[in-house]
Amino acid sequence: MGGGGQQTGPGEPGSSSSSSSRAAGVYSWEEVQSHCSRNDQWLVINRKVYNVTEWAKRHPGGFRMISHYAGEDATEAFVAFHPDSKFVQKFLKPLLIGELAASEPSQDRNKNAATIQDFNNLRVQVEKEGLFRADPLFFCLHLGHIMLMEGLAWFIIWYWGTSWMLTLLCAVLLATAQSQAGWLQHDFGHLSVFKKSRWNHLLHKFIIGHLKGASANWWNHRHFQHHAKPNIFRKDPDVNMLQIFVLGATQPVEYGIKKIKHMPYNHQHKYFFLVGPPLLIPVYFHIQIIHTMISRRDWVDLAWFTTYYIRYLISFVPLYGLFGSLALISFVRILESHWFVWVTQMSHLPMNIDHEKHQDWLNMQLQSTCNIEQSFFNDWFSGHLNFQIEHHLFPTMPRHNYHKVAPQVRALCEKHGVPYQVKPLWQGITDVVRSLKTSGELWLDAYLHK
């Protein structure tokens, strides 16, 4: 949430504070909160007030992410996403316009100061323990096993034949490699595995572009919003269901009262199996990826994206022909999409989904996130995203350290009475369907009776 830009000076447009407080550069929370529109955005970091209106357009994490904190205290989110605060400070300095008045609390609205302080202390402690340091060997070995699966799929078809059973085995291996590459690019999108950032940046482009056929910038700008404001309507793109589904307990009732019926939502737990897992990646994501790269003129990502399909067609067209190769990759994408949807949604969709409540970092993340039990299979299957709680609290922590910090997080939650949910894998998957059914019933009740 840092960067360079312009600041608003005394008497300039974009401010509604009194001239006396403006001249002194001292502001109240009420004044900061009034600057939350698209063309007028202030935020607070460590009691310092910044005007990020112009900088938001150039923010490396995307303008939407930083805009979601306009008019708010962004301290916890800033710390979570910027491990090198000294580097970011040089971008923040030109945006500084003042500070909070001494009489103002450090937290905005009704956030619990004790919870925030204890979580900050925990973060300092795990930093001292070295849990934010990545092990490059872990990620290199993971990349190796992905490339091995792709190579094995290619070897089976080229040397053993193209029978339907071998083709099915090839598709499963390719889908597995695609899914595991997805978890790996997710790692490189969040953290610096190597000390030299250019290598980290290049590997991220290679993995998501060449091994998956997607866009690094598209993914980062979308996914960082999810981490910044998880399960919050209009701020988390993962709960933007294009009115195909209604989620949580609030949205269904709102739609029902307004008599909104774009779909038979009381049956959404059934048609979810037709339009959710099989179509998210091969249809919706791919349309969005291509549109984003072209509209933003992101030619570097487009070039990486193209190399994936060139490599794939060279490998399989000689065996299956163009039509057969397209059919195979479509089937692989459908398998991958099922894997992705169940893993990502089992920790979020059954949780609280609502409008902005302006909660502190710990409560916001824990109310929208749960864990899946640890096991060797669950760790591998989910790319360690069975530790979603730890991942959301510490998005720049390497995944091989989630299990180490989990007991400390659980203890902090117990101290402050924050629910820390852990489920078996089967329950996490079935809860996705159950939550859709419950939300659909809430919609039908409101639609018929209110």
TrEMBL record:
Its main location: membrane. The gene is fads2. Pathway: Lipid metabolism; polyunsaturated fatty acid biosynthesis. The lineage of its organism: Eukaryota, Metazoa, Chordata, Craniata, Vertebrata. One of its GO terms (biological process) is unsaturated fatty acid biosynthetic process. GO terms for molecular function: acyl-CoA (8-3)-desaturase activity. SMART domains: Cyt-b5. Residues 1-12 have a biased composition (Gly residues). It comes from Parambassis ranga. It is found in: Membrane. This is acyl-CoA (8-3)-desaturase. Residues 1-22 are annotated as: Disordered. It comes from the Eukaryota. It is a multi-pass membrane protein. One of its GO terms (cellular component) is membrane. SUPFAM superfamilies: Cytochrome b5-like heme/steroid binding domain. CDD domains: Delta6-FADS-like. Gene3D superfamilies: Cytochrome b5-like heme/steroid binding domain. PANTHER family: ACYL-COA 6-DESATURASE, FATTY ACID DESATURASE 2. Keywords: Fatty acid biosynthesis, Fatty acid metabolism, Lipid biosynthesis, Lipid metabolism, Membrane, Oxidoreductase, Transmembrane, Transmembrane helix.
